[in-house]
């Protein structure tokens, strides 16, 4: 989308928008146009943000009661609601996603995240234990939750506002102050959120926003900063590993939501049409740029040919279009750089012996979209379980479909991965569903659905997919320190 005079996206530190000397371009992945210039935080900028966050802990924020904080978070949610279409426009400009997705998922969840953690903080209980003592008078133990302190937040570009607020909301609900860095690929909605925070009356220094890249930029300056007390990160597994090293000397607590190579399993007794529709969603939603997407699809041999034919037909019917086009199913990838990565796997798949059932290249539109970062949704068969395309996270609109014969075999094959984030099982035999679900080594299993979310549940992965859990009281456990107080009666 053309922008005559690109805006300048600035940092938000101590309640003020501040610039920095260097900037980088924010490019629209629909047509390659310049959306904005974005300030790049240097070490001094990050220092200033950490100082402001530390100071705010000792100010009115630190004295605020839980109900007062919760009320403020609801005001932030109200503020996002009041500027809903601006947030939609910001998210769509940065990512090229369908407008209907930005409305129904991204911005809606930004509001829900603030509301759910405001309510959770207000209603969460703590523990108490009465204990007998030798003198017969007993003692009372009770736990209290205290803020961790200054929390560093680093988020990815694939669901920008959703994943940014999924960390900011509980961190603030627990009484912390934050320095939050969105991805360099998707800075716009976070910048709008800073305005909403200011207008809602969040005290200066409580929420600080810094823009920039990772290595040798804002991200790394933040993770290495002695002044943060904890670091929460969502992004690639290898980045998580680098961040773990960066915080190790300070023994800082980390929460990691990382990569995945998730499986969908269609058993012979599945509702066929539901499974086809579900696998289409879990393969191509958000152009496959969701950590929960199914890049590995396993179908019982008895259904395999029919299932592949059905997926082929539906994939070729997907409407790949501008974000605001009527009935659009899929937009571009986030950037030309990411498109190059996905296309390198499209080429690799051929070298590894894939049969291309559908897609495998770049669509030609004959309009501005040819300057965007579009790729064809792609379906493969014929690859081995140990091919790079069936073991490495591609993070694009692609899935590989393989046949299987029995339950024991498929449990072994699904678990044979260095990742362990999510899995979707399609079967009408619910005994089988419960039996298999608990044997899949992941953090999240969906049965006869995909990406259905209750925000009270634990969210996270095992192995290279992450450390810790977010959601409900699991977030409270990360964003607060629990102390036990024992009183002799
Ligand atoms: N498990 C989950 O909940 C979840 C959710 C969304 C995305 N993801 C994963 O995120 C990845 C896609 O997102 P991405 O490309 O933005 O990931 P990424 O790791 O490249 O970047 C994520 C964020 O980390 C920053 N960063 C990069 N290197 C850094 C470093 N050395 N130190 C500090 N900060 C650094 C980036 O600037 C960005 O803000 C995929 O692997 C996807 O699976 C996981
Ligand atoms: N954390 C969540 C989604 C993660 C999506 C990954 O791309 C959520 O829905 O809360």
Characterize the structure shown.
It is a single chain. The chain has about 500 residues and is an alpha/beta fold. About 40% of the residues lie in helices and about 20% in strands. The protein has 2 domains: about 5-260 and about 465-489, Aldehyde Dehydrogenase, Chain A, domain 1 (3-Layer(aba) Sandwich); about 260-455, 3-Layer(aba) Sandwich (Aldehyde Dehydrogenase, Chain A, domain 2). It is built from 15 helices and 23 strands. A 7-stranded mixed beta sheet has the order 15-16-17-14-13-19-20, with helices on both faces. The protein has a 6-stranded mixed beta sheet with strand order 10-9-8-11-12-22, sandwiched between helices. Strands 1-5-4 form a 3-stranded mixed beta sheet, with no helix packed on it. β2 (about 10-15) and β3 (about 15-20) form a beta hairpin. α4 (about 85-95) runs antiparallel to α7. It is globular, with a radius of gyration of 23 Å. The termini are far apart. Bound molecules: nicotinamide-adenine-dinucleotide and (2E,4E)-2-amino-6-oxohexa-2,4-dienoic acid. The site of nicotinamide-adenine-dinucleotide (NAD) has 32 residues, from α8 and α9. Keywords: NAD, Oxidoreductase. GO terms for molecular function: oxidoreductase activity, acting on the aldehyde or oxo group of donors, NAD or NADP as acceptor. InterPro entries: Ald_DH/histidinol_DH, Ald_DH_C, Ald_DH_CS_CYS, Ald_DH_CS_GLU, Ald_DH_N, Aldehyde_DH_dom, OHmuconic_semiald_DH.
């Amino acid at each position: 989308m053309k922008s005559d005079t690109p805006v300048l996206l600035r940092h938000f530190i101590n309640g003020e928008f501040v610039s920095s000397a260097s900037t980088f371009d924010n490019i629209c992945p629909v047509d390659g146009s310049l959306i904005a210039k974005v300030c790049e935080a240097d070490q001094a900028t990050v220092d200033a943000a950490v100082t402001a966050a530390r100071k705010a802990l000792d100010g009115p924020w630190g004295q605020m009661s839980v109900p007062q904080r919760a009320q403020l978070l609801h005001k932030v949610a109200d503020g996002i609601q009041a500027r809903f279409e601006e947030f939609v426009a910001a998210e769509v400009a940065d990512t090229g996603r369908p407008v209907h997705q930005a409305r129904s998922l991204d911005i809606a969840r930004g509001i829900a995240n603030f509301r759910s953690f405001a309510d959770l903080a207000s209603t969460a209980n703590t523990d108490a234990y009465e204990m007998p003592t030798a003198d017969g008078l007993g003692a009372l133990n009770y736990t209290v939750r205290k803020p961790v302190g200054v929390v560093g937040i680093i988020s990815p570009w694939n669901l920008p506002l959703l994943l940014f607020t999924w960390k900011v909301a509980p961190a603030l609900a627990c009484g912390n102050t934050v320095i939050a860095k969105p991805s360099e690929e998707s800075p716009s909605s976070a910048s709008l959120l800073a305005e909403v925070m200011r207008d809602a009356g969040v005290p200066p220094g409580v929420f600080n926003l810094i823009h920039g890249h990772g290595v040798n930029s804002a991200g790394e300056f933040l993770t290495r900063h002695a002044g943060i007390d904890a670091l929460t990160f969502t992004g690639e597994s290898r980045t998580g590993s680098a961040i773990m090293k960066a915080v190790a000397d300070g023994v800082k607590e980390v929460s990691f939501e990382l990569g995945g190579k998730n499986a969908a399993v269609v058993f012979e007794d599945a509702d066929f049409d539901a499974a086809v529709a579900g696998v289409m969603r879990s393969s191509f939603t958000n152009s496959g740029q969701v950590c929960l997407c199914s890049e590995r699809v396993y179908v019982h041999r008895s259904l395999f040919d029919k299932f592949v034919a059905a997926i082929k037909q539906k994939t070729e019917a997907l409407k790949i279009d501008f974000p605001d086009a009527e009935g659009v199913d899929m937009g571009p990838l986030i950037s030309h750089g990411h498109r190059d990565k996905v296309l390198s796997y499209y080429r690799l798949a051929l070298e590894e012996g894939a049969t291309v059932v559908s897609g495998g290249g770049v669509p030609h539109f004959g309009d501005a979209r040819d300057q965007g970062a579009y790729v064809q949704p792609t379906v493969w068969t014929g690859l081995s379980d140990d091919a790079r395309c069936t073991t490495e996270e591609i993070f694009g609109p692609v899935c590989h479909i393989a046949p299987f014969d029995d339950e024991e075999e498929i449990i072994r094959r699904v678990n044979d991965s260095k990742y362990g984030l999510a899995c979707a099982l399609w079967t009408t035999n619910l005994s089988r569903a419960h039996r298999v679900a608990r044997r899949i080594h992941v953090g999240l299993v969906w049965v006869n659905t995909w990406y259905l979310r209750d925000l009270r549940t634990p969210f996270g992965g095992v192995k290279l997919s992450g450390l810790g859990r977010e959601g409900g009281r699991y977030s409270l456990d990360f964003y607060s320190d629990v102390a036990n107080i024992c009183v002799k009666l």
